[in-house]
Each structure stands twice: as C-alpha cells, then as structure tokens.
From TrEMBL, chain A:
Alphabetized PANTHER family for the sequence: GLUCOSE-1-PHOSPHATE ADENYLYLTRANSFERASE, GLUCOSE-1-PHOSPHATE ADENYLYLTRANSFERASE-RELATED
Organism the protein comes from: Paenibacillus paeoniae
This protein's name: Glucose-1-phosphate adenylyltransferase
SUPFAM superfamilies in UniProt: Nucleotide-diphospho-sugar transferases, Trimeric LpxA-like enzymes
GO biological process: glycogen biosynthetic process
From TrEMBL, chain B:
Keyword Lipid metabolism listed: no
Protein EC: 2.7.7.27
Keywords for this protein: Glycogen biosynthesis, Nucleotidyltransferase, Transferase
Domain Glucose-1-phosphate adenylyltransferase/Bifunctional protein GlmU-like C-terminal hexapeptide: from-to ranges: 285-350
Membrane-spanning segments: none
Domain Nucleotidyl transferase: 21-214
Gene: glgD
Family listed: Belongs to the bacterial/plant glucose-1-phosphate adenylyltransferase family.
Single GO BP term: glycogen biosynthetic process
Protein's UniProt name: Glucose-1-phosphate adenylyltransferase subunit GlgD
InterPro entries membership: ADP-Glc_PPase, GlgDAde_trans, GlmU/GlgC-like_hexapep, NTP_transferase_dom, Nucleotide-diphossugar_trans, Trimer_LpxA-like_sf
Length: 388, 370
C-alpha cells in the first residue's frame, strides 16, 4: 500500500450528555443540524475538500445509527480503493479489550491502523463541531513552522474561554502555554480540538501516555501538556471564521438560528465548499396557499400549510393548516397538527405534535425539547432548558 | 419480485413536441417537478416493483442521459449481478439510426439473449406516473395474456399525445390507434408492454423479416387478432408529457397536495440523481404561496403558483407567478416573470418584465441572459 502524507483520525465516540434526550440513542456526531445535515458532515466534508482520502472514524457510544449513516463513506468521496473511510470501534485483543478511555487512548488503541498507511502526519479532529476549514492550509503552516504539533486556535469570548483549552502564543505562532479548561483564563485563544501531529512525535507520546499512571489519556489534559513540558515545538494555526461547538441544547439551537440570518456567517451555498451528506431523495417542498414562510431554512419533502418564521425545518416535515412555528428547529419527519403553536423548541425526529398543542412561550427565553418519536398531546409536560 | 423481469426503457422515436426544451437533450431527461427528469418516474417504478435489471435504449442527444443516470446507483441499480445498462444505437451506417425500435432491439439481440430474465416490461420515458409493475405482471399471468398493455382511463382529455385503446369488458384490447387518430375512447395506452422475452424476440425477427421495424405500429397492431393482448388499468396519477402544454399543465398539477402525496410516494418513492444542495432559504422579505421549491433555492422575493428547481435565486422585489424556473436560474431585483418556462441557468437581470400568456407560456432556452 502506498504511503499517505497525512491521514485523519476523527473522534466520533462522544456521548453528548448535555444534549439530553437528543442523544439518548444516538452518538453526538450523528445529531441533526442545519436542515439536512448531521454534525459529522462538516468535518467529513472538510476532509473531502482538503484532499484527505483516508479517515479513521473512532466510534464508541451508540454507534448503530452513526454507522448506518456513514456506510462506506460514499457521500464524502471516501469509498476508495487505497484508504477511504474505516470505522474503528474498540475491540477485543488477546489480553482482553477495553473501551476507549480517553481521546488519546482511542488513537493509541488504533496505532496499528495508522501504521498501515505509514503517514508523515496525523490529523486528529472531532465530529462535534460546525466549521469549514481547509486542513491542507493548516498542514502547510505545520511544515513551515517545522512543528511537532499544530493546534488550530480561535479567539473566543472571554466569558466562554474557561470552557476550552486555551493557549498563549508568541509572535511566531509558537504556543508558550496551554491550559485545559482553566477557571481563570489568561488567554482567549481556544483550541478548536483540531490537531496536526508529526506521526513520530505522536507515536512516542501515545506510548508514553499509555504507561503513565494517573493519566486520563486525553489530548488536552495529558498529551499536549506533556509535550509542552518536554519542550516540543507546538504551534498555533489561527483560524478566523465560523466555528461552533454544538455540545449543548442551547448552542445547538443557536447554531441553527445562525443559519437563518439574511447574511449568515456560515454560508452553506459556497459551490466550492459543499457540505456533503446522505441525501434523503424526497420530492421538492410544497408551500401551499395557506402557508407563510419567512427567514427560514426548509428542506425537501416538507409540506407547509401553516406559518413558519425564523426556523430550520428538516426533510419530510408536515406543518398543517393554522400551525405557527417560530424560532424552532424541527427535525426530520415531524408532523405538526392543525393550529399547533411552537416557539423556541427543538423537536426530535419523527415526533408528532397533536393539533392545538402549544409549545414554548413567546415571552420566555427557555428552549423546549421534544424527544425522538415523542407523541405530544395537548396536556403534555415537556422538558425545558433555561438559558445559562 | 417472484418472476424474473427485465425492464426496458425505450427512448427510440418518442413523440416529442417540447420545442426548445429538447433542443439539446432527449425527452427522457427533460427536467420535471422541481428536481426530477422525466425518466425518473418509470425507472423508480421499476425498481420499486423489484426489477433489478434495466436496459435504457438511448437514441439521440443522450449526453444528458448518461450524465443523469451515471452508474444507476441513485436508483439502486448498481449491483454485482445486474443493474443498469445504457444501450445506444449500434450501427455502422449512420442512416440506420432513424430506423424503428425493433431494428435497434435486433442490433442488441445479444443483450436479450444473454440475459436469463423470463419477462420484459417495455416502457417509454415520458409517462409521469408511479406504477406497481408486480401487479401488472400478476395480472398478465392471471389473464394468461400474450401481451399486457398498461392503460389509463382519462377523466378529461390529456394535453399530451397518447394512443387511444379500445378494450372489451373482459380486458381484451381490440384496437389501438396512433397518436393522431380520432378513435372515440377514454382509454389511453401508457406505452408499457409486458410479455415473455421469447415473444419479444420472435416479434423482432418476424417483423424485421417483413420489412417492418416498429414495435407498436407494426408488431403489436397487426397481431391484435392472433395474440391475446390485454389491458391493465392503472388507477394512479398519469401525466403524458410530450407537448409543451402537457409539460406545463402536468407540472402545475403537482401543486395540488393530493397529487404531490400520491405521485411522489405511492406505491413507492420516486428517486433521482441527488445533489448536495443545502436546504432552501427564505429570507425575511420572502413571500411564497402555492409553490414547489427545491433545495438550494434562495428566495428574497415573491413566488406564486410556481415551480423552482434546485439552486434558483429570487432576488429582492422580484415576483414570479405561474412559472417554472429550472436549475440555477436567477430572477433579478424587481423583475416580473409570469407564465414562463425558464430552462436551466437562465439569468433574468434586474427590472425585467417577462410574460407569457395562459396556455402559451414563454419559453427561454438554456443559459439565456435576459
């Protein structure tokens, strides 16, 4: 097999606890986003557009639907003879098997996979973020800096900095300090969880980390700090553009709402950077005489007979006459009965909202979540998430 | 399907009065219904009925056909053992291209002989419908017919051109007329024929030996007395799309929710080549009513009683009414478009006024800038 310059390892085993009922039977990367996509489509499309043809997808939590969705990687051009997409779940070894204990351990357990391709560089990314990035440009930066590790960084709001790994960077983009989720952050340059490692360096530190007692086997908490301590060359690749971690109900809702602005920051219409996904092949949406649709994102297969404003509708949604949907995310094949009113909600796939149901209060900021396949009758109690 | 059935989509000499819409493409690939091509309807019907091998007899202008069908994978026709075959004319003499379909079947007789399928379903591409061919085959077997023709009783005369059929009470067909005939009958042929493969090969050879080379006009018409030719009545939605009026009228009937729900889903879904278009975006000033909108559209203006294919951009202040705008069309600021059919990539600049009339839509050819 030919040697690959860079292969990608995509961490897709996350449970997404903070997404509650939306990830009950679903891995976080498979959560729906943006009217027709799943979160993982963004990173896979980035790989496709960056010329990466070998991607290992590390799965662990609730992989059934994710595996079915990924298939052999055809939608992202990853059904290749040499390389392509390989799904890498934890497995049994001669001396027994273990779950992936952390991000670094997941890669450690798949060193044999990486070795098959004998790459110069390994790109480690996660399937949890919404952004468009050319990893090829990042690799060029990595080479130019003669770095051992390059971490993509983005300036975030100071208030939010403590949620991320933050970096101090000198004039030559070299990282001088790295802190994982600090209580009192002293920098607002956050790690995007996108790493390029020179494989030889990574290999050494994975083996070292595996043997260290007390390590949580995590890149941000253990491997990167260890490399910093040993004086390796860690560089930052600063990224300017749209990037969003959609790990919470609130951020998932917000990221969807970002799309419906008249001039959205994240454009999905760039013909050179299409976001690929599995297309459902449904008829074009029918907007009837009684419908009124403004500031919204609507996908094939919908029949709209009611009013839709500032909302994102996935495929196959049926909004019956007199229904009123505002500031909401309606996932695939949801049926909204006559006269139902939905405000600030995320409605899970296949849910049925009975006629006349009222969800959300226009005077309140709380986001209501309806679970997958839930049947909501008029007097049903629903889960509300107060904004933090 | 229990029985081994080969699907044949016959594009040879299809009646085509679609003017500019078929200037650079064949009838089979005329865009229809906001994201489909005409051939998608029979192809999907075949696949949904369990037919796993389909031969498309291409004839002329088939570049768009090859591009659209590709390997057949969008219709699940890319398998290890069967799948999609595109058979363009195989002839040394260029003049032979204009000969009838039986001649072209004969040229590809190896293909038929090699296949192990027992029955063939021969169709055209311009019948917009959703047919369960398994039911047709079962009917064919129950009636012990030699040939079964799928027919439709029309409640009102279709603006498309179809052959009329006379049928006895027991379902036997006693006469079929050409597209231009004046026979009184409310039953039309959907140009779908089921028969044993051996019978087809026999018809091909005997007809050609007699100097005749048209399947329906020669081989079937002249044998209505000897062969048991039966009709199968199709009850679903039918659009015979081979004239500009029928194209426009049947497109517009998709705006009725009952037609939309039936044609695209019953008995099975209609497939097409998928594109990675994002969802359609309606901006704050958009107004859309009674319209069919495909993915990838950006609507900043007003759209009434119209069909927008994938990637159409309607700018601010533009008004589109009773029109069909094909893929990647653009209607500029404050322009007015009514009763128009704009082919792919047509750009209507700002402040234009484009009007066809009811019954005679204005048709703009591919890539025109107005």
């Amino acid at each position: 097999m030919g040697r690959k310059e860079m292969i990608a390892m995509l961490l897709a085993g996350g449970e997404g606890k903070r997404l509650g009922v939306l990830t009950k039977d679903l891995a976080k990367p498979a959560v729906y986003f943006g009217g027709k996509y799943r979160i993982i489509d963004f990173t896979l499309s980035n790989c496709a557009h960056s010329g990466i043809d070998t991607v290992g997808v590390l799965t662990q939590y609730q992989p059934l639907e994710l595996n079915r969705y990924l298939g052999i990687g055809s939608p992202w051009g990853l059904d290749r003879r040499d390389g392509g997409m390989t799904i890498l779940p934890p497995y049994m070894k001669q001396k027994g098997g273990v779950w992936y204990k952390g991000t670094a351990n997941a890669i450690y357990q798949n060193m044999a996979f990486i070795e098959r391709y004998n790459p110069e560089y390994v790109l480690v990314i996660s399937g949890d973020h919404i952004y468009k990035m050319d990893y090829e440009l990042m690799l060029q930066h990595h080479k130019r800096c003669e770095a051992d590790v390059t971490i993509a960084g983005i300036a975030v709001d100071w208030k939010e900095a403590s949620r991320f790994g933050v970096m101090h960077v000198d004039d030559e983009d070299r990282i001088t300090a790295f802190e994982e989720k600090p209580k009192n952050p002293t920098s607002n340059i956050a790690s995007m969880g996108v790493y390029i490692f020179s494989w030889k360096a990574l290999q050494k530190y994975l083996i070292y980390d595996e043997a260290s007692r007390g390590s949580s086997h995590d890149f941000g908490k253990d491997v990167i700090p260890a490399m910093m301590r040993d004086g390796l060359r860690l560089h930052c690749y600063s990224y300017k553009g749209y990037w969003k971690d959609v790990g919470t109900i609130e951020s998932l809702w917000e990221a969807n709402m970002d799309l419906i602005a008249d001039e959205p920051e994240l454009s999905l219409y760039d013909p050179k950077w299409r976001i690929y996904s599995v297309n459902p092949n449904m008829p074009a949406q029918l907007t009837t005489e009684t419908a009124q649709v403004t500031s919204s994102f609507v996908t094939e297969g919908c029949i709209l007979e009611g009013t839709v404003d500032r909302s994102v509708l996935f495929f196959g949604v049926n909004a019956e006459k007199g229904s009123y949907i505002s500031e909401s995310v309606i996932m695939p094949n949801v049926r909204i009965g006559e006269g139902a009113r939905i405000h600030r909600a995320i409605i899970g796939e296949g849910a049925v909202i009975q006629a006349g149901v009222i969800i959300g209060d226009p005077l309140d900021d709380a986001i209501t979540v309806v679970a997958v396949d839930q049947y909501v009758a008029v007097d049903h109690e629903l889960l509300e998430v107060e904004p933090s | 399907m229990k029985h081994k059935v080969l699907g044949v989509v016959n594009l040879i000499h299809e009646t085509d009065e679609l003017e500019r819409l078929t200037q650079s493409r064949c009838l089979a690939t005329v865009p229809f219904g906001a994201r489909y091509r005409l051939i998608d309807f029979v192809l999907s019907s075949m696949v949904n009925s369990g037919i796993s091998q389909v031969a498309v007899f291409a004839h002329t202008k088939f570049r768009s056909l090859m591009d659209h069908l590709g390997s057949g994978k969008h219709w699940d026709l890319q398998h290890r053992q069967s799948g999609l075959f595109i058979l363009p004319p195989a002839t040394d003499d260029i003049q032979e291209i204009s000969r009838g379909d039986l001649y072209h079947f004969y040229q590809h007789r190896d293909y038929f002989e090699r296949s192990t399928w027992e029955y063939v379903v021969i169709t055209r591409s311009h019948m917009v419908c959703n047919v369960d061919f398994e039911a047709v085959i079962n009917h064919h077997l129950e009636q012990e017919a030699d040939i079964t023709v799928v027919c439709k009783r029309e409640t009102q005369p279709s603006p498309g051109k179809a052959r009329k059929v006379k049928m006895e009470d027991d379902g036997r067909i006693t006469s079929i007329q050409d597209h231009y005939g004046r026979m009184l009958s409310d039953i039309v042929s959907m140009e779908m024929y089921v028969m044993r493969k051996e019978l087809l090969m026999e018809l091909v050879e005997t007809s050609l030996a007699q100097g005749q080379d048209h399947l329906v006009r020669h081989a079937i018409f002249s044998r209505l007395g000897q062969l048991k030719v039966h009709g199968y009545m199709y009850e679903g939605y039918l659009g015979v799309v081979n004239t500009l009026t029928s194209y426009y009228d049947h497109s517009m009937s998709l705006l009725q929710p009952e037609v939309w729900k039936e044609l695209f889903y019953q008995p099975g879904p209609i497939y097409t080549k998928v594109k990675d278009e994002p969802p359609a975006r309606y901006t704050s000033g958009s107004h859309v009513s009674n319209s069919l909108i495909a993915n990838g559209c950006r609507i900043e203006g007003t759209v009434l009683n119209s069909i927008l294919f994938r990637g159409v951009h309607v700018e601010k202040g533009a008004l589109i009414k009773d029109s069909i705008i094909m893929q990647n069309g653009k209607v500029g600021e404050n322009s007015f478009v009514s009763n128009c059919i704009l082919d792919k990539d047509v750009q209507v600049e700002g402040n234009r006024d484009l009007r066809g009339t009811e019954g005679t839509p204005f048709l703009a050819g591919k890539k025109r800038v107005i």
